[in-house]
Amino acid sequence: MMGEAHSKVQARHLKRNAYLYVRQSTLRQVFENTESTKRQYDLRERAMALGWRLDQVIIIDSDLGLSGASAVDREGFQRLVSEVSLGRAGIVMGLEVSRLARNSTDWHRLLEICALADTLILDEDGVYDPAHFNDRLLLGLKGTMSEAELHILRARLRGGILNKARRGELEIRLPVGFNYDPAGRVRLDPDVPKPVNWPGANSNIPAHFGCCIIRVIPARFASAERTPTSYPMAHTGFNNFQQRSGSR
Question: Which of 90, 110, 112, 167 has the fewest CB atoms within 10 Å, i.e. is most exposed?
Fold first, then answer.
């Protein structure tokens, strides 16, 4: 396999950079599945063994914690595709197909661009040239299996949720201020402070939520010299704060 891989790597490929794409699907996997992440970074050694210098290996790991189901929000993957289309990549590396994409459309688009730009693809099993029919066929099958695996995992999880719901045993995350008692019934959380009446408010607001409101509402609205802020105004301010925070 190594000899065949070396035969596919030509001098024209070594003149360009090697791009290593690293991704984990969730932040939990980033913190807990550290061995998988380490294996992905270790592909640098494979590139150097094939002839690339260390300074030619460019690591794209900005998509850690993002799902591979779509390329829309994955800036790292979009950058990778751009670099390949500009002819700057001699080889694209990923531990397996599922790290690069779990969507057949995104995967086959990458294969097409790699074939046009004369860019190789490397995974844990070997080196492939998308311009060759046999390699492209194998890569296409791997991409299809990766997408099917995601569908099977989702179906399995959804089936378990529905089955638990039919038995009446499904517990979902409750709003702040509620929890489950030992019998599984929803109740008010005894550890949450009791609601307090705000002067001029149309409803009760939990005391701990008031801290958020004070931080969100400008000081001129919270001043004792002015009419106290109503709950609808506070709610609108809190929503705007969340939207501004999300857009940063």
Answer: 167
CA distance 210 to 195: 10
Distances in whole angstroms, Cα of residue 59 to Cα of each of 28, 44, 246: 21, 9, 27
Structure tokens at 151: 């569908």
d(CA 223, CA 218): 9
Residue-wise pLDDT tens digits, 198-223: 555 555 555 444 444 434 444 434 44
| Annotated active-site residue in 7, 25, 82, 245 | 25
pTM of the model: 0.63
Active site annotation includes 98: no
Which two structure tokens, joined as six digits, stand for 2?
């190594």
CA atoms within 13 A on the CB side of 43: 30
| 26: phi then psi, degrees, rounded to nearest 5 | -135, 160
Q: Which candidate, 41, 68, 52, 65, places its Cα nearest to that of 18?
A: 52
Name the DSSP letter for residue 88.
-
